[in-house]
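Q: Start with the shorter request: fold the first protein.
A: Done. Sequence, then structure:
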Amino acid sequence: MDRRQFIGMIGGGAAAFLPSPVALGQQPDRKRLIGSLNILAEDDPESRLRSAAFTHALQQLGWTEGDNLRIESRWAGGEDRLVTKYAAELVALTPDLILTSGSVTVRPVQLATRTVPIVFVQVVDPVGSGHVDSLSRPGGNATGFTLFEYSLSGKWLELLKQIAPHITRAAVIRDPTRGSGIAQLAAIQAVAQSLGVELTTVNALDVQEMERGITAFAQSENGGLIVTSGGTGFHRRAIVRLAAKLRLPSIYPFRYFAIEGGLAAYGPNTIDQYRRAAKYVDRILKGEKPADLPVQAPTKYELIINLKSAKALGLEVPSAILARADEVIE
């Protein structure tokens, strides 16, 4: 055996005993799993826009569904009773993270797991609801994006009064079992007297009960409708149709109500929250903790005016309101 053969034999033998990259802790890339719990229905046009915005934003950050990412979604379709079931199903899949949409979706997931990271969107008052310790330091396994401060609710009545000055009565549709429904009503009540508007509440728990309440309210003149967030989005088509039928000028919390024919909407851009949520998902998947990521408020609020609906109601929207509008539907 010559010297060259001897060195080759020694080198090959040594290589056979070297630890592999996996043994050294360099784990091979794996496909990450995200669970997604949504309060709306899967075939809702708003759901499709939200999902598209979220997946597109993730793709821009290097996460492609079917490649290095899988998203397992559940859609409650407005049925609160399904949320707990779907929360348990998603946690059982041992995902890397769960995205929740809507205030009622966060608590069931937190009860099912205190370890899986949660990113929430469309949540009102996450501190008051007990989802996080504080906005700046969430402190647990959840963080995300709020909808708005309760004071915004008073602006709904102010805008409605500007668009339809003849209104002296307003029915407030809200879910009385949710803290957000109670607080939004309180904010509206705080400005009602100064605007000369008498308020009536209509419960949004049951669609038939809600329709009866709106119909009874419309029997008297000079009435308008304020629809709060929380428990109303899934029934928006029924609400908008009834408001048009009863000729009630109405204002809503989100753009998708105006798209369905609502007179006006003022609130945060719901699609933008999903784009921003993708950035938090990216950071958590790369090792950051929800406890260290502050809960963020909306950065975009939008005023939408549906001129077609205004015309049907015989209303002339003031030019000052139209100039402020982010979108005018004609």
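Q: Next, the second protein, separately.
A: Sequence, then structure:
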Amino acid sequence: MWDILKRYFERYPSQAKIAKTMLRNGLCIRGDSVCCGDIEIADVALARAAGVDRRIVASTVQTIKKDELLMKVFSELKATPHLKDVAHAMGWSAIEIIPSNANEPGILAGVTGIIADAGVSIRQAVVDDPMLTEEPRLFIVTDREVPAELLPSIRKVPGVKGVTMI
């Protein structure tokens, strides 16, 4: 996604940092504000997270509002809770898949197929966008422990470089 949107910010590297931070965190534009769902995010907080001056946030919002495609994207983003870090507290399990090539099709289907065939229910699957993350991963949260005997099969899925139980 970022490879499509970055051209709008080529002349404005600081604005690109804000836009990329918004994408990565599911922050949207409501009016003249940046929000996480219904919660307005302070310009200074977003600027600090992106490593730029707070005034860049307002100029980024204006750049986005001037373009129809950018506004369609940035007005509809939503943050999604990532359950991997709370899985154990909830009595669930989580695994991390390290891809050899995150752009290779079929990794998610292959891994989830093996898990589903074992009768384990998947609560959440989160895939990092290779254009937004330097080292993209696939995280799968399941309703119970993934049997250890499945790990060799998961490692054999084309495009899987490594598997880690979290």
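Q: Describe the second briefly.
A: The domain at 83-165 is CATH 3.30.70.260 (Alpha-Beta Plaits). The first strand starts at residue 28 and ends at 30.
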